[in-house]
Amino acid sequence: MVNESDLTELKLKDGEFEISIRTGSYTKLRPAAQVIAAPAQMAQMQAPLAAEVAAAPVASANSPAAAKDDTAGLLEVKSPIVGTFYRSSSPDKPAFVSIGDTISEGSVVCIVEAMKLFNEIESEVAGKVVKVMIDDASPVEYDQVLFLVDPKG
Question: Which domains does the chain have, with CATH numbers?
Answer without folding.
Answer: 9-55 (no CATH), 72-150 (2.40.50.100)
